[in-house]
Design a protein that fits this description.
It catalyses: gamma-L-glutamyl-L-cysteine + hercynine + O2 = gamma-L-glutamyl-hercynylcysteine S-oxide + H2O. InterPro entries: CTDL_fold, DinB-like, DinB/YfiT-like, EgtB, EgtB_Actinobacteria, Sulfatase_Mod_Factor_Kinase, SUMF_dom, SUMF_sf. This is Hercynine oxygenase. By secondary structure, the protein is α+β, with helices and mostly antiparallel strands. The mean pLDDT is 97. The chain is globular, with a radius of gyration of 22 Å. The protein has a four-stranded mixed beta sheet, covered by helices on one side. Strands 1-4-12 form a three-stranded antiparallel beta sheet, with helices on one face. It has nine helices and twelve strands. It has two domains: 154 residues, Four Helix Bundle (Hemerythrin (Met), subunit A), CATH 1.20.120; 275 residues, paralog of FGE (formylglycine-generating enzyme). Helices cover 31% and strands 11% of the residues. The structure holds N,N,N-trimethyl-histidine and fe (iii) ion. N,N,N-trimethyl-histidine binds next to helix 5 and strand 10.
Length: 439
C-alpha cells in the first residue's frame, strides 16, 4: 500500500466511524425520548415496538460486522431468530420474549464497541463485502433506515410531544411550476457508488420519451383543491384497485388530517396544527397520489423519469450523484436527517435544484413513482437476497428521494425504496409529470 492509499483508507475509517456515531446518536435520541413502557408497547400494528428496532439494529450489526467482517465469536448467539424480520411479522413482535430496554441498550453498546475495534483492524479492501468499507456503509444505512421507521412509529404514537426541532428554511422564488425533460438516453443506476445497495446496480442506459415534470412536490394547498373538488368521491380519478381500497379504508383525506369546523388540522408528532398549505403533502398512499395526478390532468412519473430529472446533466450528458452535483448532501441542499421534523415549503432549497431547475427531489418527502419493484438488467443479489430480491415483483410501488426523516447516508440519486401502494404511515408525498409531444 502506498502512503496515499494509507491516508485514503484512514480517511475512510474516520468517515465510517462518524457515520456510525451519527446513526447511534439518532437511535439513542428516538429511544431515550420515551419511557420503558412506551418502548415495549406497540403503537400501531404496522410497526414494531421501538425496543425491537433497537435490538434488531444491534443484531444486524453483530451478524455482518462482528461475525462476518470481524470473524469474531457471537456477542449473543441466542437471539438471532427474535430479531430476524422474516421470522416474525411486525404485528407479532410485542409478544416475543424480547430483550428489555436496559438489555437492548447494553447489547447495542457491546456490539458497537467490538465493531469499532473491527473497523480499526479491517483492511477495507480484498473481498467485495469489505471493499471500500461496503459492509460498514450497509450497516450505517440499515440503522438509519430503522431510525426513519422509528420516527414513523413516533408519528403514530399518542400523547404529548417528545421530539422537537427547528423549523425548515422558507421557500425561494420559483421560476416555473414544471420543466420539459428532453427525450433521449441517460444512465440509470450505478456501478461506481461504493455504498450503493444491490438494487441500485449496475448502471445501464435508458432511452426516454420527452416529458414534463413538476419543479416541486404537490403541496397541501394543491391537494386540498382535489379534496374540495370531490376527488375522493369520483371513481373516474382512481384506478380499479385504488377505488376498491379508497372504499374499503374509507379514505377522505391524508392520514393524520382532521376537519376542525371549516378548516383542516393535522397531528404531527403530537402537535395539532392547521394544515400548512405551502408544504408538500405527506402521508398519502400511492392510490391517492395517482388519483390526484389524474384529476390534475397529469400522471405520476416513472422511476426512470424521476431519476433522469434528478441526475441527468444536459450540459455533459452525464448522470450526477445528486441533483446539485456530486457533493454529499449539506444542509443547504436538502431537508434530511430529522434536522427539521416536517417538510420545507415547496420551492425551498434552491441550492439543491437539478440543472433543469427541479427542486426538493432529495429530502422533504419520499415521492411515489408509477413503477413496480423490478431488478435492473444485470442485477446480482448482494450480500443477501432478503434485502431486495425477495421483494421483486411483489405488491409494491417505488419511492424516491428520501424524506426529512431520512439521513444523508441512506439516500442518493440512485437510491430505491418501495412499499405497498396502500401505505400511508411513511413520510411519502409525490410530484406529477405528463407526456410531451415529440418535437
Ligand atoms: C428498503 C425501507 C423498504 O425498512 O423494510 C430495513 C429497509 N431492510 N431492514 C424496510 C430495511 C431491512 C426496508 N426498506
Ligand atoms: Fe432491518
Amino acid at each position: 500500500m502506498t502512503s496515499t492509499e494509507r491516508i485514503q483508507t484512514d480517511r475512510l475509517r474516520e468517515r465510517v466511524a462518524e457515520d456510525l456515531r451519527r446513526a447511534r446518536e439518532r437511535s439513542t435520541l428516538l429511544t431515550d425520548a420515551v419511557d420503558d413502557d412506551d418502548l415495549v408497547r406497540q403503537h400501531s400494528r404496522l410497526m414494531s415496538p421501538l425496543v425491537w428496532d433497537l435490538a434488531h439494529i444491534g443484531n444486524q450489526e453483530e451478524l455482518w460486522l462482528v461475525r462476518d467482517v470481524g470473524g469474531r465469536d457471537p456477542v449473543r448467539h441466542d437471539i438471532d431468530d427474535l430479531y430476524d424480520a422474516f421470522q416474525h411479522p411486525r404485528a407479532d413482535r410485542p409478544s416475543l420474549p424480547l430483550l428489555n430496554p436496559a438489555e437492548a441498550r447494553g447489547y447495542v453498546r457491546e456490539v458497537r464497541d467490538k465493531v469499532l475495534d473491527v473497523l480499526e483492524r479491517s483492511p477495507l479492501e480484498g473481498r467485495p463485502l469489505v471493499e471500500r468499507a461496503f459492509a460498514f456503509g450497509m450497516i450505517v444505512q440499515h440503522e438509519q433506515q430503522h431510525d426513519e421507521t422509528m420516527l414513523a412509529t413516533h408519528q403514530l404514537r399518542k400523547g404529548a410531544p417528545v421530539l422537537h426541532a427547528e423549523p425548515p428554511p422558507p421557500a425561494a422564488p420559483l421560476p416555473a411550476r414544471e420543466v420539459l425533460v428532453p427525450g433521449g438516453p441517460f444512465t440509470m443506476g450505478t456501478s461506481a457508488e461504493p455504498w450503493a445497495l444491490d438494487n441500485e446496480r449496475p448502471a445501464f442506459g435508458v432511452d426516454l420519451a420527452p416529458y414534463w415534470i413538476d419543479t416541486v412536490p404537490v403541496s397541501n394547498g394543491d391537494y386540498l383543491a382535489f379534496i374540495d373538488a370531490g376527488g375522493y368521491d369520483d371513481p373516474r380519478w382512481w384506478s380499479e384497485s385504488g377505488w376498491a381500497h379508497r372504499m374499503k379504508a374509507s379514505l377522505s383525506a391524508p392520514r393524520f388530517w382532521e376537519r376542525d369546523g371549516d378548516r383542516w388540522v393535522r397531528t404531527r408528532f403530537g402537535v395539532v396544527e392547521p394544515v400548512p398549505l405551502d408544504e408538500p403533502v405527506v402521508h398519502v398512499c400511492f392510490h391517492e397520489a395517482a388519483a390526484y395526478a389524474k384529476w390534475a390532468g397529469k400522471r405520476l412519473p416513472t422511476e426512470a423519469e424521476w431519476e433522469k430529472a434528478a441526475r441527468w446533466d444536459p450540459a455533459s450528458g452525464r448522470s450526477r450523484r445528486y441533483p446539485w452535483g456530486d457533493d454529499d448532501p449539506g444542509p443547504q441542499h436538502a431537508n434530511l436527517g430529522q434536522r427539521h421534523l416536517r417538510p420545507a415549503p415547496v420551492g425551498a432549497y434552491p441550492a439543491g435544484e437539478s440543472p433543469l431547475g427541479v427542486r426538493q427531489l432529495i429530502g422533504d418527502v419520499w415521492e411515489w413513482c408509477d413503477s413496480d419493484f423490478l431488478p435492473y438488467p444485470g442485477f446480482r443479489a448482494f450480500p443477501y437476497k432478503e434485502y431486495s430480491e425477495v421483494f421483486f415483483r411483489g405488491d409494491y410501488k417505488m419511492l424516491r428521494g428520501g424524506s426529512f426523516g431520512t439521513d444523508a447516508a441512506a439516500v442518493r440519486g440512485t437510491f430505491r425504496n418501495w412499499d405497498h401502494p396502500i401505505r400511508r404511515q411513511i413520510f411519502a408525498g409525490f410530484r406529477c409529470a405528463r407526456d410531451a409531444e415529440r418535437p
